[in-house]
Amino acid sequence: MIAYNPYADGNFGGYLSDIRIIKGASVYTGAFVPPTQPVSLVHNTTGTVAVYLTGTDAPATDPSLGINFESINNAQVVSNVNKFGSTSMYFNGSNQLLYSPPNPAFIFGTGDFTIEAWVYPTGRTATGGSSIVGCHNYGVAANWFWWINPTGFLYLQISSSATGAITSTTAVPLNTWSYVSVTRTNGVVAQYINATLAGTTVTYATSIANSIGLAVGGTTNNNAAGAFLGYIADLRITKGYARTITVPGLQMQLK
């Protein structure tokens, strides 16, 4: 259920649930019995479902920018494994991810940035890699993506041509929490595992775009070859600032 507060004239004050807009067909043409269960993307018309907001699939928001992430295939918070607080995000290594459409907040340009998260992988994706976060249509195009490769090493790629690619020399262990981070400082990109520089750096001062949105725990085209298996907590992306990397005691940013 989605709740809104009546802050200004025209805003709805109350709750909304199961909103569906169908383009090209009239589902109801006369008196009808209201649905007794949630409607779905499957219907008996020739129209196209243009919008469907269930009000139940938004377990993740960015409180600072108000960016909502859509839960794909019921990716959700769990309480059995957690780093801070009582929950973390779980991804099944197959088809679950969080997705947000293109947003200026995800366009790094030529400036500094920091990406950081606690990760608890329980397995490795053998084909491509276990995607932590990125703007990446697997096998098609990438603005940038950051994942754990099949042998367990952190891998950052900027652009589809692999320009700016960097691989850690230290593996991310399975079945335990690790604090992973990547920064760009004055064009120099570096990766860290538990606040320790993980391998060499690379110089990449070229502008970094985002035209395909942002995916957490998978790729934007939801390809199983890039699916993350395990738990992610406290993911934070900072645009325009390279943070000093120390192991933090952060509160949950992404739940």
Describe this structure in words.
This protein folds into two domains: 1-56, no CATH class; 60-239, Jelly Rolls, CATH 2.60.120.200. A hairpin with a 4-residue loop joins strand 12 (141-148) and strand 13 (153-158). The model is unreliable at 1-9, 52-58 and 250-255 (pLDDT under 50). Helix content is 0%, strand content 42%. An eight-stranded antiparallel β-sheet has the order 5-6-9-19-11-12-13-14, with no helix packed on it. The chain is mainly β and 255 residues long.
Structural class: mainly beta
How many alpha or pi helices?
0
What spatial order of strands do you see in the largest sheet? 5-6-9-19-11-12-13-14
- Give the strand content: 35-45%
Major β-sheet profile: 8 strands, antiparallel
Topology pattern, helix = H, strand = E: EEEEEEEEEEEEEEEEEEEE
CATH-level-2 architecture of the largest domain? Sandwich
Mean pLDDT: 78
Shape: globular
